[in-house]
């Protein structure tokens, strides 16, 4: 459904606008309490904020850890799907978060892919068929104090490789 809506919206808006407002208006992302605040035109940089509010305040008055994880979880996958295009399969494979201190104020996170990283991803997938990418952004305060460290593993494969792999798995199951 979201892909279909995005395709229709591309007639009127840039991909960066669709990314930003699509996330911010999406009911499941709204529930995370995160908000996409900036998206570069090439989608290589996405910035979010997670304000401390009554919706995500835990028993001790800091941001609930689940809000931080859920607000950061989908960003890289959707970012890569849009950057790489339809010839690739992109999945979130794993996520972990290590909390360093309580989030007692609005916190921020940046999700960055350099042009060199994107080129390396494409070349590695071309060579190997599939790869795992590990990204480790930090959730920080406005002053740069680290609140939590994320560890995200993203799976990327060529569509052709992925189709063959799925057929082989299905054949083994029968």
The average pLDDT value, as a whole number, equals: 93
The largest sheet is: 7 strands, antiparallel
**Series of H and E elements:** HHHEEHHEEHEEEH
Overall geometry: globular
The number of helical segments is 7
Strand content: 25-35%
Instruction: Please state the CA-atom Rg, rounded to the nearest Å.
Output: 17 Å
Report the strand count: 7
Walk me through the structure.
This protein has seven helices and seven strands; from the N terminus they run H-H-H-E-E-H-H-E-E-H-E-E-E-H. It has helices at 2-9, 15-25, 27-30, 65-72, 75-84, 115-128, 159-173; strands spanning 35-39, 45-50, 88-99, 107-112, 130-135, 138-140, 146-158.
Descriptive terms for the model:
seven-stranded antiparallel β-sheet; 40% helix
Provide a compact summary of the structure.
This protein has seven helices and seven strands; from the N terminus they run αααββααββαβββα.
Detail the topology: elements first, then pairings:
Layout (H helix, E strand, L loop, with lengths): L1 H8 L5 H11 L1 H4 L4 E5 L5 E6 L14 H8 L2 H10 L3 E12 L7 E6 L2 H14 L1 E6 L2 E3 L5 E13 H15 L1
Antiparallel strand pairs: 1-2, 2-4, 3-7, 4-6, 5-7, 6-7
């Amino acid at each position: 459904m979201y892909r279909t809506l995005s395709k229709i919206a591309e007639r009127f808006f840039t991909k960066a606008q669709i990314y930003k407002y699509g996330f911010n208006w999406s009911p499941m992302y709204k529930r995370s309490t995160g908000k996409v605040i900036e998206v570069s035109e090439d989608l290589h940089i996405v910035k979010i904020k997670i304000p401390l509010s009554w919706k995500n305040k835990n028993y001790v008055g800091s941001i609930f850890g689940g809000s931080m994880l859920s607000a950061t979880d989908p960003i890289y996958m959707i970012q890569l799907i849009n950057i790489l295009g339809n010839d690739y399969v992109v999945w979130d494979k794993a996520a972990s978060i290590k909390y360093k201190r309580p989030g007692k104020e609005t916190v921020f996170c940046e999700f960055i892919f350099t042009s060199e990283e994107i080129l390396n991803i494409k070349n590695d997938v071309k060579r190997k068929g599939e790869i795992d990418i590990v990204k480790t952004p930090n959730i920080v305060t406005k002053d740069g104090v680290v609140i939590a460290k994320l560890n995200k593993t993203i799976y990327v494969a060529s569509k052709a490789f992925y189709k063959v792999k799925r057929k082989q798995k299905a054949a083994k199951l029968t």
